[in-house]
Each structure stands twice: as structure tokens, then as C-alpha cells.
Design brief:
Layout (H helix, E strand, L loop, with lengths): L1 H18 L3 E3 L10 H11 L4 E3 L5 H6 L6 E6 L4 H4 L2 H11 L8 E9 L1 H4 L2 H20 L6 E7 L3 E3 L7 E2 L3 H16 L3 E4 L11 H4 L7 E3 L4 E3 L2 H15 L7 E6 L15 H17 L13 E4 L57 E4 L5 H12 L20 H15 L13 E4 L13
Parallel strand pairs: 1-2, 1-12, 2-3, 3-4, 4-5, 5-8, 8-11, 11-12
Antiparallel strand pairs: 6-7, 9-10, 13-14
Helix pairs in contact: 5-7, 7-8, 12-13
Length: about 450
């Protein structure tokens, strides 16, 4: 009997632990990153990471995470927000980008844009809540069980954060946008997602406070609470701001937080492996402990660390390219306790054979002969949602004929491959694309090269 009770207890504890594991943001702005199927295999077999967040609806990634059990949060491109206020368009968007993958790929969140209030422009801000309501209604009508609609906010939404008791949202956004948005979260039981970055508040005098290291703390004389780290202070500042609008019951999630391990000379001493390991390691331990914050004790949050890989094609200073927990070969930049005990040897990406170059040295991306029409249609939908010019395959376009999925897919897949930098992985398309040295152009339809 005791043995049986112990087994039940262990199963319960495992379930609790899995329900609150740390997630990561999986960015793809790199020309040396492993293909999505290997990323999915690595996360499932070698780490305790049980959820990812991506900044688009990349079908290659969604296919790769099918049947892994890993939760996937996707992001609607900012520019789609005004169109999503139309119910029919919202249903069509889901039918194209979500329904083909869910539930084999366990999509848990759809984020409507990213940091819209911070970056704008105003038409997106004005349509944000309406788009979220429209998309939520479409999710229900489409029977896409388990998917929650939210959006992530930078802490630029706060007018002040120190001390937390005096925090409040910025005037104009508070009643005009955030109150209706929080009302939506209350009604739909979805989380208000924020991106707290103590990293940006780092200074020589408060280094330990930002890094979860020992320090004298910051005392809030109004609530009589002492803060031992900036993360807790920022989270409670958000909570107080919500409370002042009457929404303290709405759950909070952390969409992004992290630390860069390397930076320019002017970014020192903030950016270092030691600091990144200290911050992210402490964050993982804090999340696992379930301690919460001074104003939200024992509160657990969904937390997504930024990011999974160092991304060598990100713009900005050196620090922007070094937020990753892992290098592209899956070796850890530093250890924060997310690798499984048997994962000492990293999974090495399988090198892809390069095709024989044509006499001109040019290469094109086309569908594999065995690729299904369903897979190729998904490739078309993805490429055309990424800003690639798809007018040539539309009626009247130079590449409309022959009017079939394979021909249209060939043209847009190659356009994506060429405009993204002609890297082999840009022609992977979850195994449906292949590189050729034979020019597929025909008649008036000229393929990029």
C-alpha cells in the first residue's frame, strides 16, 4: 500500500513539475541554425523545456513539433491585426495557419502581434482588442480546443515601476486600451502577457539586484515589502497597475525575459556569460520553486526565456545576437539546469549535402517530387504571409500558368529561398523542398536566382 501511495505521489509531483516548466523563445534570425526537426528532437530528448514561443506561424516549425508533446505559442504578424477584426478573415486565418497542425502540434497560445503598444503604429493599437476578440470567437467556432488568445507587452506600458506600490499604466493606454484588453482576458480566462527585462535596468550599483544575487534589497514603504531582485519588483509593478484598473484577478504570464552573454565594449560590464548564467539560472530555480513575488506569493507564471539560440543575423549591437541558451550546434552557452542528466553530449546537426553547382553556380529551390499538395499549399501560405511578392502566381501573373499547386509552390518557395539569403535550410520547408541547379524558369515566368 505504501509503495502504491509513493507511486501516486511521484506521478503527482511529476505532473505539477511538467505543468510549470520553463519555456523558451525560438527565434530563427540566423544562417547557421539547425533545421526545426532537429530542434524539436533536441528539446524533447535532451532538455526539460516543455514549451516554445515563436514569432510567426512558420509551418516548418509547426510540423516539426507535431507529436512531441511540446507546447507551441505562435504569433500573428503585426500587420494582420486590422484584417483580423473581420470574423470571416479570422476564421480563414485559422483555417490556413493553425487548423492543419493542431492538435498534433500542441498550440497553446496565439499571440496577436508583439509589443503593439510599444511599437505601434496607431491603427494597430486601435484594432488590437477587436482583433483579439474576433480571433478568440473564431477559435471557438473552429473547435480548436485548448488554444488561448493573448498578446505580449513590453514594460513600456508602465509609467513607473519603483516602488511597485506607486506603479501605474501610462495615461491614455490605461483606460483606452489596457482596461478593455484586461476585460477580454478576464472573460476568456487568458493571461496578460508581459516582457520584463531586468537586463535593461542593470547598472554598477544595482548589479546584484538585477541578477538575483545577494543584496540589501529595495523596501516599498507603502506595502511594507522588501524586494530582493528586480524581476519580482517589475512583476509586482504590473500587478499593482492591473489592480488599480480593477483587474487583479487576471493571470499574468512572462512572454520574454533573458540576458545577453556577450556585447560591445559600451555594453560592459552588463553582458557576460557569468551574468547571463546567474540571471537565467536563478530564474529557472525561482520558477521551479513556485515562490511567486512579495505581492503574489506562491503564484506560478508561464515563463519564456529569450532565447533558445544565438542568432547571428539579428540587427543591432553584438548583444542582440547573443541572448541564446544554446549555440547552433546545441552545445550550451552556459548551464542553467535545463539539460537532462543524460544529455552531456549535445545533438550535432546533421550536415546536409550540397547539390552539385550548375555551370553558372546558380541554385534554385523547388518542391520534392514526393511532396504532397497539402504540404505545398501550406508552403505557399507561409511564404506569401512573409512579405514575399506572390503576385506572379495570381490570375494574370506571369507564373499563374500552369494553374496548379506544385507549379505555384515552386515559384514562391524559390522566391523565399533567394530573398532569405540562399542558405540550404531556407529550402527545407519541413522536408518538402529541394535545391536544384536546373533553372525552372519557363516562358515569361522567370525564377529569381
Amino acid at each position: 500500500m505504501a509503495h502504491l501511495l509513493l507511486n501516486h505521489l511521484l506521478l503527482f509531483l511529476a505532473a505539477v513539475s511538467a505543468a510549470h516548466a520553463i519555456g523558451v523563445n525560438y527565434g530563427t534570425l540566423g544562417d547557421n541554425l539547425p533545421p526545426p526537426p532537429q530542434v524539436a528532437q533536441f528539446l524533447k530528448e535532451k532538455t526539460t523545456i516543455d514549451r516554445i514561443k515563436i514569432f510567426d506561424v512558420n509551418p516548418d516549425i509547426l510540423r516539426a513539433f507535431a507529436d512531441t508533446g511540446i507546447l507551441v505559442a505562435v504569433t500573428v504578424p503585426n500587420g494582420e491585426i486590422p484584417a483580423l477584426t473581420d470574423a470571416a478573415y479570422a476564421r480563414s486565418w485559422l483555417a490556413t495557419h493553425i487548423a492543419p497542425f493542431h492538435p498534433r502540434t500542441k498550440i497553446n497560445y496565439i499571440l496577436v502581434g508583439n509589443e503593439i503598444l510599444h511599437w505601434g503604429p496607431q491603427p494597430l493599437v486601435d484594432n488590437l482588442v477587436a482583433a483579439m476578440r474576433s480571433l478568440h470567437a473564431a477559435v471557438l467556432q473552429s473547435n480548436l480546443a485548448g488554444i488561448k488568445v493573448t498578446t505580449a507587452h513590453s514594460l513600456g506600458i508602465l509609467e513607473s515601476s519603483e516602488p511597485p506600490s506607486l506603479a501605474k499604466f501610462r495615461p491614455g493606454w490605461d483606460r483606452g486600451v489596457l482596461a478593455p484588453l484586461l476585460q477580454f482576458h478576464r472573460e476568456t480566462k487568458t493571461p496578460f502577457m508581459v516582457n520584463p527585462y531586468p537586463y535593461f535596468g542593470f547598472g554598477p550599483k544595482n548589479a546584484n539586484f538585477t541578477l538575483f544575487k545577494a543584496n540589501k534589497g529595495v523596501f516599498d514603504k507603502y506595502t511594507k515589502r522588501t524586494y530582493g531582485n528586480m524581476f519580482d519588483m517589475l512583476m509586482d509593478a504590473v500587478y499593482v497597475s492591473m489592480m488599480k484598473l480593477g483587474y487583479k484577478d487576471v493571470e499574468i504570464a512572462v512572454g520574454e525575459t533573458g540576458w545577453s552573454a556577450e556585447g560591445e565594449s559600451f555594453e560592459q560590464p552588463r553582458c557576460s556569460v557569468e551574468n547571463a548564467a546567474a540571471y537565467n539560472g536563478a530564474l529557472v530555480r525561482k520558477s521551479n520553486s513556485g515562490r511567486g513575488t512579495p505581492l503574489m506569493p506562491r503564484k506560478r507564471f508561464d515563463v519564456y526565456i529569450f532565447g533558445l539560440f544565438n542568432e547571428n543575423q539579428k540587427s543591432g549591437p553584438l548583444s542582440e545576437r547573443n541572448f541564446g541558451l544554446f549555440r547552433p550546434d546545441f552545445s550550451p552557452v552556459y548551464d542553467v539546469g535545463l539539460l537532462r542528466a543524460d544529455a552531456s553530449a549535445p545533438v550535432k546537426p546533421t550536415p546536409k549535402p550540397s547539390p552539385s553547382p550548375s555551370p553558372s553556380g546558380k541554385k534554385w529551390c523547388v518542391p520534392k517530387p514526393e511532396a504532397s499538395n497539402e504540404a505545398l499549399q501550406a508552403d505557399i501560405d507561409y511564404v506569401c504571409s512573409q512579405g514575399v511578392d506572390c503576385r506572379p502566381i495570381q490570375p494574370g501573373g506571369a507564373c499563374f500558368a500552369p494553374d496548379n499547386v506544385r507549379s505555384h509552390a515552386a515559384f514562391v518557395m524559390n522566391s523565399f529561398y533567394q530573398t532569405e539569403g540562399r542558405h540550404d535550410f531556407n529550402c527545407d520547408f519541413s522536408g518538402s523542398g529541394v535545391i536544384t541547379s536546373t533553372d525552372p524558369s519557363n516562358g515569361l515566368c522567370k525564377y529569381l536566382s
